[in-house]
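tool=predict chain=A
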Amino acid sequence: MDQPTNQTIKEGDLAAALGLSREALKKMRRDLLERDKDWALGEESRAIEYTILALKKIRAALGLPEPLYLTYPGSPTPESVILALKKKGTVPEELQVIKAYGNGIVVLCVQTAAPNAQVRLKVRDNRNFTPGMIVPGCVHVEADRYDYVGRLPRRKGRI
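tool=predict ok
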């Protein structure tokens, strides 16, 4: 049952389904998985594709329950995945925005549990993040850096 199959999952789809950033998935790929056994470059698209065996290894490393039903970009992040990450302690409850930087991808925030600690939140596009906004579902990546998990706000100041 744990043998790899011909079925593969593209990296972007897997990141969306797990609620992780592609950078976090890349780090897991480097640390846990073997090239050509667990992942490979797609022949036509040159995108990184993961096997079902790789999905099982990643799921075990994150402590996610079986089965993980995959969703694809454009669909909402599964609440069960976010809840599993919160139970493991990798997702803080929420962050509050202080400032959106001009580079387009970084937002300065504070944790609502520890208002004196400033952290950086990496998002795909920060133009709709405004000061005072509460942002739920942020994955801790490094000492003072978090990645946003979920859909970007459609309007200024609203998630």
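Confidence is low (pLDDT under 50) at residues 1-5, 67-78. The two ends are 41 Å apart (CA to CA).
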